[in-house]
Amino acid sequence: MSLQFYYFNLMPYAALDLEERKKYQTAWLNLPSRLYDREDGRALYARWIGDYIKADALGFDGVGVNEHHQTAYGMMPSPIVIASILARETKRAKICILGSAIPLRENPLTLAEEHAMIDTISGGRLITGFVRGIGAEYHVFGANPALSHERFHEAHDLIIKAWTSDEPFAWEGKHYEFQYVNLWPKPYQRPYPKIFIPSQGSKETIDWAAHPSRRYTYCQTFSPMVVVKKYLDMYKETAAAFGYECPPEQLAWSTMTYVAETDEQAVREVKPHFENFRNYFLKMPMPMLMPPGYSSVSSMMSIMKAKGNITGDMTAEQAVDLGFLIAGSPQTVRQRIEESQKLMGYGHFMTQIAFGTMPKELSDKNLTLFATEVMQPMQNQSRAAVAA
């Protein structure tokens, strides 16, 4: 089974003063921006963009960007800005937006135009990703989370119609109203770029993405391996109930990996940086993560039951045991990916190489070892199998 590899980066503020961070409940929304140093920020943007370009040169099938606001967790409030840079600076990798939070936009057509521009400039290398945005984003925008689903669906329908219509039209919806919709430019790909739907496991999202009229690629994010399997199986079962068999290219997994010379060295080197990521960058109170109305009660209970204490602390050793983090020698990491792919049947693997406070020398080593000792051998094996 062939596998597509993607390099993904949240672009964290890795220079965060952790002692200061510990004085606050979370790194989201209320962590004072006085802790942000402009020179550190400038250097980190240069570092992260350079890593994307290096990933392209190393043969990754795609590079992934996403959107978060007012947080040290990820300095990418506009994935459009980074994707625009990558449209010119990369040569072959797909540019995967994972994704743009469409229900938070007052004018989704602006996003439709921007994605069309990136697709055209890159020569058709864009993969579009749509998300609702996590709960914290609704606090940032002062938006009502109870309207999240219906705004998402209407914005999606408007964007798709704008991409595919060759004549001007008017749009009169519940949340958006435009007298003139007449997109210039159109996407380079016809009828429009492939669409990924990242999710934590909402049943409503799975039902919607798997519908025969969409068949969008479902990407499970930040979950223990048993949880990933549960939700990818749910997607496959939903597709079967709709009357079709879900192919591997409709399933994706995004997780963190760290490769070193030995298993012991990998866990030792990654431990402080994973734990800083999980326990100081990612962590947030439940009302911020899932504000009232953001998800149905049944979906929220299902996610909490599957993931356990999703807002609690986690050690690197626990994360490795759970499959939340894949860390080890090249042979171990390659074996874990091969085993998980056979078990779950996904066709896209999105690896987060640099996270938390990881310094440049370790993320450089991790990127190079993953690409040359894990990814490239698996790519070569897949090509040889196809040729045979």
Short description:
With 388 residues, this protein is an alpha/beta fold. The chain contains 14 helices and twelve strands.
Explain how this protein is built.
With 388 residues, this protein is α/β, with parallel strands linked by helices. The protein has one domain (4-387): Alpha-Beta Barrel (TIM Barrel), CATH 3.20.20. The chain has 14 helices and twelve strands. The protein has helices at residues 18-21, 38-57, 79-89, 108-121, 135-141, 148-164, 203-210, 225-242, 263-282, 286-289, 297-307, 316-322, 330-344, 360-387; strands spanning 4-8, 62-65, 94-97, 100-101, 126-131, 169-172, 177-181, 195-199, 217-221, 251-259, 325-328, 348-352. An eight-stranded parallel beta barrel has the order 1-2-3-5-8-9-10-12, surrounded by eight helices. The chain has a two-stranded antiparallel sheet with strand order 6-7. Helix 8 (225-242) links the parallel strand 9 and strand 10 (251-259). The model has no long low-confidence stretch (mean pLDDT 94).
Main sheet: strand order = 1-2-3-5-8-9-10-12
* Main β-sheet description: 8 strands, parallel, barrel
Low-confidence stretches: none
CATH architecture: Alpha-Beta Barrel
Mean pLDDT across all amino acids: 94
Helix-strand string:
EHHEHEEHEHHEEEHEHEHHHHEHEH
Helix count from the secondary structure assignment: 14
Q: Would you give the CATH topology?
A: TIM Barrel
Fold topology:
Elements: E1 4-8, H1 18-21, H2 38-57, E2 62-65, H3 79-89, E3 94-97, E4 100-101, H4 108-121, E5 126-131, H5 135-141, H6 148-164, E6 169-172, E7 177-181, E8 195-199, H7 203-210, E9 217-221, H8 225-242, E10 251-259, H9 263-282, H10 286-289, H11 297-307, H12 316-322, E11 325-328, H13 330-344, E12 348-352, H14 360-387
